[in-house]
Design a protein that fits this description.
This protein has 433 residues and is an alpha/beta fold. The chain folds into 2 domains: 3-29 and 278-431, LarA, C-terminal domain (2-enoyl-CoA Hydratase, Chain A, domain 1, Alpha-Beta Complex); 38-247, 3-Layer(aba) Sandwich (Rossmann fold), CATH 3.40.50.11440. It is built from 16 helices and 20 strands. It is globular, with a radius of gyration of 22 Å. The two termini are 30 Å apart.
Length: 433
Amino acid sequence: MSLREFTFGIGDTFQKVCLPEEHISDVMEGKSVPAVDIKKATIDCMRNPISSDPLQKKVTPGDSVCLVVADCTRIWNQSNKFLVYIINELNLAGIPDTDICIVFAQGSHRAHTPEENIKVCGEEVCRRIKMYQHDCNDTTLVDLGKTKIGTPLFINKHVVDADKVIIVDGITVHLFAGYGGGRKLILPGVSGYKTIQCNHCHALAPQIGEGVNPLTRPTLLDHNPLNDDMIEACAKINPCFLVHSIINAEGEICRMVGGDWYDAWLEGTKEVHRIQQVPMKQKTDVVFACAGGYPKDVSLYQGSKCYDPAEMAVKDGGIVIAIMEARDIKEPPAYMDSFCFDTMEEMEKALRAEFTIPFFVAYNLFCLCHRCTVILVTRPENFEDIRRTGQIPVATVKEAWLLAQKKLEEQKKNDYTINIMTHCTTVVPTLAQ
């Protein structure tokens, strides 16, 4: 039996394990895509847009322009590096700073601190442009009726009243909306609490006890009711333009897309898929899924992005070995405090009554732990908290592999298969055609 050594990042350190080469199906890594000149790429996407006239032709002097900008939970999109170029382009079109405002797409998140405004927009933009924090419970939200599936539409008044709206974010794979960005800037971004709750509950199956809606999963857009609902809400506002970033595996901007709010976003999702899609021969009995070390594994919530590609790559009833240090295991409390239920049904009922993203992410992991054996390599001081999630905690990758081998022997699986992802947050495993 020939052995092959693999190295996994965990926190600021690394762990190694030797695995039998004849059992390894695929070793999946994200594609290397070069960074772009951010200023040049941003200006180019506004002047040579997708399915749209250039931004300067989409606005007219005298227009009030509202930039709906993703909040501080999305600073990975690096909007602080390109937002100023959008504003400068509006100035060139005859729109002064005084006719421009920013509304942060906070959904049901809290308001920013002044420091967080700077992290999202940059210091110069914060000095020049008036800004509004979206409050999903604001009494001035505008009632725009209902969507086809009955979601009541309450939208931020600053957005509804603006002559022109531009949406600004980045695009990445999303747990239940298929992809982030685009229409999500409106719903949930600047929507009311009831609007958000009704929309997000479509991430659960129609009937209680059926768990997560299989139509609302990462990369899925077609027939995704949650996505369709978001698109309908965004169409009510009909933003005149979109500017979004796309990020490579190194965390750098590798492309900017601009233009029509739907077509440019859709093109961006295809680019994200092209970058992150990695073919695999098969789903396997064992999957190694590593977040890639600090800061990607700073908490269980942050590192939870490990579980989606792992779920795509493992057989039903298989073994997932997740690897994350989670030095801030208690953060955020809204996530870790969600693991207080004995059964999936109890947890699902509570989630339907009060849907939040951290609660859903916790429920998604709880479901995975009931379908598969999930072993988590983490700090020993985390073990008690980890057991509440349904995972089996261990301190080393070697220990996890020994435990997995024991389970494979119990199942009499001598011909087991292994998939490996050393940086799984940058990978979307896809069965080869």
